[in-house]
């Protein structure tokens, strides 16, 4: 009986990823876009017009990952101008750093100087997070769950989701923040003890996504409270979330050679 169970365990191999810093995703994953250096005006105009999210802007040609659905249409139509790499390291401490230009050929810089000093001081070894689905569609929420599963095992860093804001050091927001969730979100944030952090996860949460112009959302929370980390994706990949949080805590340094 025991021997047969040991055989099953052996046949499954290691379920966990031994080193989260060395993960490489499949080439099919759409992460950091790579934009060509010189693009003619007509192509830029066509790209601006084809993007359903108004995520592509001109002068210079840029993609706002906070608005992008990662649908890949721009890449399909203009493969010589835009290619999505499998680099999942796309989180940023500043909202404007989610705007990718031809300059971001190798990596998206993470501005550690912009991170509030108490974050690494108090949360570097233990961070408890409260997740608030503010009108989300459960896609980002499922990926956040996956970050804690046996494969990714994010809790190995002392980072866990908790059931109450009273036990949390930070809030993780998903969804476009609907009218009905605006007040509960603020109440949840106020219920947390100081100091605390805000992490905004997914296109819907960062910009409102496809609901950006809807009267059914209320994004005042993000105007009156300063987010500490923006993690794009539609939905966010567990590795983007993990690497982003580790970068915020000063535990992950980005350089081109990690690609
Ligand atoms: S991948 Fe992003 S930038 Fe490209 S067309 Fe889709 S939404 Fe727009």
List the helices and strands and how they pair.
Layout: H1 2-12, E1 33-35, H2 41-50, E2 56-57, E3 62-64, H3 73-77, E4 82-84, E5 99-100, H4 117-123, E6 127-133, H5 139-147, E7 159-161, E8 170-174, H6 179-191, E9 197-201, H7 203-207, H8 220-224, E10 229-231, H9 238-248
Parallel strand pairs: 6-7, 6-8, 8-9, 9-10
Antiparallel strand pairs: 1-4, 2-3, 3-5
Helix pairs in contact: 5-9
Count of helix runs: 9
Order of helices and strands: HEHEEHEEHEHEEHEHHEH
Strand content: 5-15%
* Total count of strands: 10
What is the CATH T-level topology of the domain at 112-258? Rossmann fold
Mind explaining what this structure looks like?
There is one protein chain. The termini are far apart. The mean pLDDT is 94. By secondary structure, the chain is of the alpha/beta class. The strands form 3 sheets. Strands 7-6-8-9-10 form a 5-stranded parallel β-sheet. The chain contains 9 helices and 10 strands. Bound molecules: iron/sulfur cluster.
Short description:
This protein is α/β, with parallel strands linked by helices. The relative contact order is 0.17.
Features:
binds iron/sulfur cluster; 259 residues; alpha/beta; globular; Rossmann fold
